[in-house]
Structures are given as C-alpha cells and as structure tokens.
Specification:
alpha+beta; homodimer
C-alpha cells in the first residue's frame, strides 16, 4: 500500500489527564493551551480528549500536554489510548487485514526531565477469516516492541495484564509509540493503552528495583 | 471446557482511581478499605491496583471502590482494564484460541445513585493460525455487547476509538462487564478498557443529548 493519510488510516489517540489537585481545571486547560497542536485535530469532552493526525504530531502533543501538567509539580496521571488502522467507529471503513502499514518509528520526542512510571498494553487486533489471518503474527510485533523497550532502558518488568515502564516521560512515550508502530508493520489495526504516572507521592518506587 | 477457575483462566482487572482533590490520598485509601474484597486478591503499586478473582467479585469490588470515592462528591475518574483468557504475563499459559468460555453474564451489581459517563473499548484478541481462527468471530461479540448496552439504556453513541456510555455507575459497570463476558463466549482472550468519570464539573454534559 502506498502511504495512506492519517485520516484514511484512522490514526489518533484518546487521552485523559488527571492533575491530582483541587485546582485541576486550570492545570488541564493551561496544559492543553501550551502544547503545540499543529498538524493535529483536538476535541475535548467531559470524559476525554481526542487527538487525530500523523503519529509524530500526536505523540509530540501528548508529551507536551502531560509534561506541562506534570511540570507544575502536581502528582499527575494520564491515560492514553492510541489507535491506527481502523478508521470509523463501531465498524471499520478499511478492509480488515488488507494491508498493514506503518511509517518510520523515529518519533523525535525530546527529553523532558520528568520521570514517569507506566503500565502499558499493546493490542494488535487480528480478524478471523481475512486473507492473511494465517500469516499475520500478532506476537511478533509484541516481542519487537518489548525488545525496543529493553534497548531504550524503559522496560522494568512484565506484570499481570500490562508491562511496567519507567524513565523520562519522553522515553516512556517513545517506547509506547514505537511499539504501536512496530506492531503496525505486521497487523493493520493496532491499539495501545497506557496509564502514566508522574510526581507520585507513593513511597513505593516500583521502578527503583530494576 | 469445564469451568476453569478464575486463576487458571487469568480473570482480573487493573485499575487506577483519581479523585481530583489535593486530598486524594485518604479518598483512595478509604475507598479501597471500604470495599468488599472477599473473593479477590488485591495488590496496589504507585501506578495502578490489580484485582484478581471471579468476574462478579471483581466487578463488585470495582463498583464499591469507585462508588465510595465518588460518594464524597469529589470529581473522580477511574480507568479500568479487564482481562480474561490469558493467564501469565507476556506469554499466555493457556493454548490460544483453544476454548472460549464464559460464565453467566448476571453480575448482580446494585444501583449506586451515582451518575457516570464512560468511554469504553472492547477487544476480543484473536490469534492467527489457531485451530478455530477461521470460525471465531470477534465482531459478533462486539455487536452483542453493544446490543446489551442499548437494552440497558447505557449506550449513548459510538465515538472515535470508543463507545460512550452514560447511566448509574452500576449500570455502566454492568454494561462493561457483560460485554466482556459476551465477547468471551466467542473468543478466549478478551480485554476491555474504560475511562469512567463521575461528578464532572464540565458544563458539557455529553450524555444529555441522547
């Protein structure tokens, strides 16, 4: 397939941002206003914010929004859903499994100086009965993504239902974005979820023992 | 398959709870302490809490924890990951696609009096090349789950990457749990994610226009 546009391929994210302070509204609004939204469409409702556009622009926007909120020093948690390969809503507007495609994985995020811990899940979504269901391998992309996390130094451990990542916010988000794209070379529809925590007051630093 | 135990089948959840107040620590700790944890194993770290056990006990625990936190009147957001059919961590300890199994979908949650809005995603995870990959149908379970949400009255609309649900917290959680089990009758490994918001100060009530 020649490179489809992000809109054609359904590339985007849904996220929510939780600065754990009674004054959370200005922290969220300031963070959304401070981030570079060039190249992305952003829409917010009372549950989450949808960001659509090319993968590097989506990840840059997420990194800047989360980084700006956490830069206040407030304990901040973000939850991300990344999706590509399934434009539309309940039903996909592309033929499923027709062609897996992903751009280069270099997302170009710059270090934030903010330490983040995350629980990360990666879901390459195969469909039964499609032309290449017998040859597509969803585990291959997952192993590549975990190898990439190890070489980045962000992999901490596998846990129930998720993988623990730790590192600079940009390194954690790069790991998540790179995994999403690596799996996307094998399987058309790939979704990833992550819960990312910064400035946690918890005395248990789960990432410190690796 | 005769009914596997929840541990054998890898049934459980990972969730995080965000009461949006500077005094979030006691709200979280009180909510965890107040919920009925009989029948579930609960472990908390600095990013999320893992709950393992039979589906009705897991959902009851989640409903009570979230309900207790939101019952303070504070704007509270919870993120859930529900998983069944893939015990183990990176690699599954069951043969994939071997046998899909799910108990009755009656979860028995009682109304909380708390209104919740949610973005919900349901992922039946098929594997290529398994014995029944040609006969398993991941969309069938998704359509059944959405029909169930419509008959419960919690379905609001399909959005990018998620379905919007609104209703009593117990009805929203029942919809999510029932969808997880309905899809689990067709496909062994089923994961569901949801972002659930209560007491939002947002003037946009996205659920009000249905």
């Amino acid at each position: 397939m020649s490179a489809p546009s992000p809109t054609e391929y359904g590339v985007g994210a849904r996220f929510s941002l939780h600065p754990m302070t009674s004054g959370f509204v200005p922290v969220i609004l300031d963070a959304l206003a401070a981030a570079d939204a060039s190249g992305v469409d952003v829409s917010t409702d009372d549950v989450s914010t949808c960001v659509r556009g090319p993968e590097p622009a989506v990840l840059r926007f997420l990194c800047q929004v989360i980084g700006h909120a956490a830069g206040t020093g407030v304990h901040t948690v973000a939850h991300l859903l990344l999706s590509r390969g399934c434009p539309g809503e309940v039903t996909c507007e592309l033929p499923e499994g027709a062609d897996a495609w992903a751009p280069d994985v270099d997302l170009g995020l710059t270090s934030t100086g903010l330490r983040a811990g995350a629980h990360w899940s990666l879901y390459p979504l195969l469909d039964a009965g499609t032309a290449d269901a017998d040859t597509q391998d969803h585990m291959a992309g997952i192993y590549e993504a975990i190898d990439q996390a190890r070489s980045r130094g962000t992999f901490t451990r596998a846990e129930h239902y998720a993988t623990r990542l730790d590192g600079d916010l940009a390194a954690v988000l790069s790991t998540i974005g790179e995994g999403w794209l690596l799996a996307g070379r094998q399987v058309q529809h790939v979704v990833s979820h992550a819960t990312i925590s910064l400035n946690s007051p918890s005395t248990t630093d789960a990432g410190a023992d690796r």
